[in-house]
Amino acid sequence: MPRKSSRGISVSDALKSSTSILHFFSKKPDPEAIEKIADEATIIEEIVKSKETPLFQDHNSPECSIAESEFYQDPELLSQRDISAPSCPICSYPFSRLSDSEALIHVNQCLDHLEPVKSQSPEFLPPINIPSAFTKIMLNRFEDKQWQFTTERSRADRSKRSYLRSCPFYKIMPHMRIAVDAFKFGKIPDIDGYFLSHFHSDHYGGLSSSWTHGKIYCSDITANLVLQQLRVAEAFVVRLPMDKTIWIEQIGVTCIGANHCPGSVLFLFEKQVQGRWVRYLHCGDFRANPLQVLHPAIKGKWFDTIYLDTTYLSSKHAFPAQDDVISATSQICLSLSKEIVDDDDPVEIARREAGIGKFVSQKTASRNGRGRLLVIVGTYSIGKERIVMGIARAMRSKIFAPLYKRRICACLEDPELLNLITDNPIEASVHITTLREIRAETSLEYLEQFKPHFSRIVAFRPTGWTFTSSKRRAENPSVETIIEKWKTPYGIGDLKPQRGSSATVTVYGVPYSEHSSFRELTCFCCSLEWGRIVPTVNVHSARSRDSMKAWCNLWKKHQGYHVYDGQRQW
Ligand SMILES: [Zn+2]
Ligand SMILES: [Zn+2]
């Protein structure tokens, strides 16, 4: 691309005359954002006038030959600049305005203090390039120290009450005064905004009606739940729109669907620090899919740090796609709901082979019918609605849920779900149950309550946790192998009834997960460009961190791989 020189237009004009930056950040130009940027431009212009020197000047060096005013306008230049701009590996502070020695001092201070150092940089110094080896060594050294510090501190904090413990570094976005899913540490120093990724207790823990530590930013659905279930004062709750960048002070925030539970989001945080965009992607809890990577607010950008939901970041977690699990479970339910047994039905054949129902005379059952089938799906908190709805749709049934769950469902802004939900357990063949433990015994007890309306029960226990692939897999696979060969197909033959199952009660564990599989994490991280991945789950043992780090290092070598326009599944 040919280098351009400054056309000498004012910052304000450049911003007002061009909406390209807005297209870059949101699907539609947002009038509020236009206003905000125009306001900022005016402020910048005031500063320029007061100093009587141009704010952005051409340094005649290759790095600076792209004038800043043009740099603002052109998303392509913007992302290009981001990737090449050297920054502190610890706190992402851009080095473009520091000398070599100042940059070194900065990094060393960051290393010593473990908290980002707020640099006072002399303006207009020529940019420098830090050799990548330097950055890499520093980053590794720093990361080790950071985790060591965090684990030592959390050990020391163990006897303290929760709100007196210190918030671990991976919940705080450097330079932004933002904390994510960090409500149990009381008031966190230097934090202005508390972001909540979704309504699961391991994330909102600490939030209650007595919360007064600052604004809570979350999606609409999460806000409904925070208000209704936790009775947090309305004045503290800020609803964020989906898929649209809004500006909170100087920080651009975009919520992107996390494909986890209803209302769950990925947070994209962007802030311009000294002419460079510092960008973090916080994944909360998520099940990765190509739509996230292809999202207009994500695609083509460079991320300083990805805060990654590493629940299943281990090669043994190879559970299948949600849609495949939903269709297999729906098919099983449909087959078993037939009161007259169809001996040729593949589901019945599989059950006979598994020895279920072999003591029941098939002929008797066929002649008299085997009674009405009740299906229960265990889910305590929010989540798993899609599999329940899939089954209900297949069986053309309503869904019964206890009062506690019905109240939660009312918050989820899902008309189809609301339409299916009923308070009459007899009317619905599909029940959501909050049973903590779904086993043959507990399911049978559940069935007893509803006799004679139902005479058989099938119970599903959805989790990705217990599922490991039966296939033998290479120990040190390449990224290509993981992506091409490690996809796990799933069909009715894979649903194996659990111990204690009989003709009356059948329990299935189903590999239905609302977190990413190992392969999906690989696809996600190899389809983005980033500087650093910070794991947010399974971080308390050094061994687990080391193993996760090894995968991240492998992915880092394959950035920009494996996603195409319009792709919906990995
Ligand atoms: Zn969650
Ligand atoms: Zn979680």
From TrEMBL:
GO molecular function: 5'-3' DNA exonuclease activity; damaged DNA binding; K63-linked polyubiquitin modification-dependent protein binding; zinc ion binding
Any one annotated GO CC term: cytoplasm
Keyword DNA repair: yes
UniProt-annotated location(s): Cytoplasm; Nucleus
PROSITE patterns recorded: ZF_CCHC_NOA
InterPro entries: DRMBL, NEMO_ZF, RibonucZ/Hydroxyglut_hydro
Keyword set, alphabetical order: Coiled coil, Cytoplasm, DNA damage, DNA repair, Metal-binding, Nucleus, Zinc, Zinc-finger
Primary localization: cytoplasm
Keyword Cell membrane appears in the UniProt entry: no
Tree of life domain: Eukaryota
CCHC NOA-type domain: residues covered: 80-112
A GO biological process held by the record: interstrand cross-link repair
Membership in a protein family: Belongs to the DNA repair metallo-beta-lactamase (DRMBL) family.
PANTHER family recorded: DNA CROSS-LINK REPAIR 1A PROTEIN, DNA CROSS-LINK REPAIR PROTEIN PSO2/SNM1-RELATED
Protein name: DNA cross-link repair protein pso2/snm1
Organism of this sequence: Neolecta irregularis (strain DAH-3)
